[in-house]
Write the structure tokens for this entry.
Amino acid sequence: MKELDVRYLERLSQLYPTIAKASTEIINLQAILNLPKGTEHFLTDIHGEYEAFSHVLKNGSGSVRRKVDDVFGNTMSSRDKQGLATLIYYPREKMDRIKKEEKNIEDWYKITLYRLIEVCKCAASQYTRSKVRKALPPDFAYVIEELITEKAEMTDKESYYNAIVSTIIRIGRAEEFIVALSELIQRLTVDHLHIVGDIYDRGPGPHIIMEKLMEHHSVDIQWGNHDVLWMGAAAGQRGCIANVIRICARYGNLDILEEGYGINLLPLATFAMATYGDDPCECFQLKGEPNYSQTEMLLDIKMHKAMSIIQFKVEGQIIKKNPGFKMESRNLLHHIDYEKGTIEIDGQTYELLDKNFPTIDPKKPYALTKEEEDVMDRLERAFLNCEKLQRHMRFLLSKGGLYKVYNNNLLYHGCVPLKDDGSLKTVRIYGRSYKGKSLYEVLESYVRKGFYAVDPKEKERGKDMMWYIWLSENSPLFGKDKMATFERYFLADKETHKEKKNPYYCLLENEKVINGILKEFGLPEEGTHIINGHVPVKSKNGENPIKCNGKVLVIDGGFSRAYQKETGIAGYTLIYNSYGLILAAHEPFESTEAAIEKESDIHSDSTIVKRVAIRKLVGDTDIGKSRLKIWKHCLWLIEADGSRSACKNAHTGDCVKNFHWGKGINYRNLQILLATSDT
């Protein structure tokens, strides 16, 4: 037997040293496998919109409201049910308002507590008591467990339960108890959270989102290109640092860096004012509606231009250092005629909208000036030494990857690079060829090397690869022929701004192609789905996020406010519960204050993508299958207990002398059983 198998068996026999313990575990596991599967919640392309994200996280994309409906049905008015749902989302804030309006607060506490207990019972009913117990808030664990395990038909303890509720109110703990119940309902309603890329950029609060995710009980993350960009910046990659700062400046979000992460931007601000003080920087106006004063706005614009020019320079240096990236066409500074103020691209000459380049030497256009070099040195140190940023990036590394296969769903951001005919595109990475799944895996390995490699050369390669993943034509997280940043700033001709997408996006309705992708990642053609983010779904133009007869779900509808005019909605989210897949299309989120004051939930139109004929159980999930393996091994422990037939049926010839591991367990027979098992 393999050494690993032996060690596994040794550990198994230690955990279950007796027949009684192995039998108990079999009973427990068998029961768990027959529970309904937990609800999975899929979010993508959050882009720093922390208020909308927080609300969708609290309401589980309508899952909490569905629990309220399940419990109370027609026995409560829609208004009362919405009020209860809002209380569950924002218990403290809602109670602050209720206390000012409610004349008999004790009666309100009593009614509300009983209602929340009923909803909590419903949310907890699909889990084992052990799992619910682990989720209970420590301060009220015993009391909540007693209340939510009460059976309606049992009258013997009625006065006991009533006494608990009355005492909670009498001693002034009702408010804290309501908060505890509400947060428990939120936690139990959604069992697992999937973030399918792009937490960062555009919106004002990615750092707040990261803190919330780090507190979440169960989450995985598929990195988006914006996430990898920030990872590269945290690793000290200059191209990534320049892009991060430029994007923050463009959307008026420099506070993310200064206040969110404590990164000092004063050297950049000083340099920008000294260099571009008299420059109107008209091509670098901000996007969105940042909450800036006029003075702050003018400074941001100048910093925006300063960092953009630095970016084009350092990217030119990266491209020159890495000829294997084959991105020479994106080096444009040496194609500028600085006297005429024009540029030649693909044999055509264009006039530049901005002709003021005081820091560019036409003979050495990609060389940083002494002042620019000083700015970048300081910024590089600031990113590398920011403890909070490093902590967030370590979380992304520990919980994330470029793709994930989970419960027969393939999750990734962006696209699988394809040729025009739908076959997998081969990409060269540092001299070796990769495609499909192997491309994802090698790119992910280089991201991790950028942080953890001992070899300085490999670490540097990893850092440069993060920049490559951000914007390369061959990156599965980008999937366009170019990132036309320079063209959008400096050229009026909209044709130059166009970014041609990978054929993948035109082939999403081709079932043969989609089946090929599923097969590449080890999934069957039937009963599986690709869950995809990255490209906003233009709902206002009639675009449908459900592609290829439901096999592909593109759920980026635009959390980002900057894209909502283009998409017409405020994001798609996905729920996968024991009954099937539910797609929710959200209207724009007004504000947290409005959600509390007006009890205005995000209006969502839900579409049932797939309803299963037989309810999905834990046994049908990946976790269930792993538990089933333990179940079988425990059964082997029992069957191997001094069993002569075990040796006989194993077809291994003479049985080695019995070795008993633990009381009553024939370890050698167990080895034979495991070696001949079809699992």
Q: What stands out?
A: The radius of gyration is 29 Å. Residues 173 and 264 are 44 Å apart (CA to CA). The chain has three domains: 3-34+620-676, 40-196+533-616, 225-387+426-532. Residues 3-34+620-676 form one domain.
